[in-house]
Amino acid sequence: MALRIQPTAQVDETAELGDGTSVWELAQIREKARLGTGCVIGRGAYVGTGVQIGDNVKLQNYALVYEPAELGDGVFVGPAVVLTNDHYPRSVDPDGKLKRGGDWEAVGVKVREGASLGARSVCVAPVVVGRWALVAAGAVVTKDVPDFALVAGVPAKRIGWVGRAGVKLVERADEPGVWQCPQTDALYDERDGVLTER
């Protein structure tokens, strides 16, 4: 599949984009960013300098992914999601002088394989969103999210588990600690706040 870049998108010549990736209107992909194959970068989305993105990742319209973020294969980033990169954001230093790139240390958000970030959610770096986790729309993630966790709220807290299909899992009545996907029937085991696939 061919690479598609709309004329109004800005893609730096040092960025690497995999086959079958589409970059839509007004999107910006900065220097040395690396995107895998089959990605979709929506209208007005921003991918920061050196950001690493896996295969088959979708960034919906106006998503902002600041460096040094890392997104695994199959990640979904909903509309207007923000991945931050500064512990202590300030425009100026204590003397009132405008801060520049070397005046602060960038910290990143890592989103693992298959995870989804709902519309207008914010991940406050540094955090890790685990494999196949689901962050609800409007949530503010300030702590690491376990694999398969469903988190919501401000700050985000775990309110359940989801499977690979993204559907909320149901605990089996006959087997406490065993969770089942109502869509695929896949089973998961919970032990000490960690969910694993069978």
CATH architecture of the largest domain: 3 Solenoid
Helix content: under 10%
Number of helical regions: 0
Q: What kind of oligomer do you see?
A: single chain
Under CATH, the homologous superfamily of the largest domain reads Hexapeptide repeat proteins
Please state the average pLDDT score: 96
Overall geometric form: globular
The profile of the biggest β sheet is: 9 strands, mixed
What's the number of domains?
2
Q: At the first level of CATH, what is the class of the largest domain?
A: Mainly Beta
Radius of gyration: 18 Å
Distance between the termini: 35 Å
Q: DSSP strand (E) fraction?
A: 25-35%
Order of helices and strands: EEEEEEEEEEEEEEEEEEEEEEEEEE
Q: Low-confidence parts, pLDDT < 50 over ≥5 residues?
A: none
CATH topology of the largest domain: UDP N-Acetylglucosamine Acyltransferase, domain 1
Strand order, sheet with most strands? 1-4-7-10-13-16-19-21-22
* Number of extended strands: 26
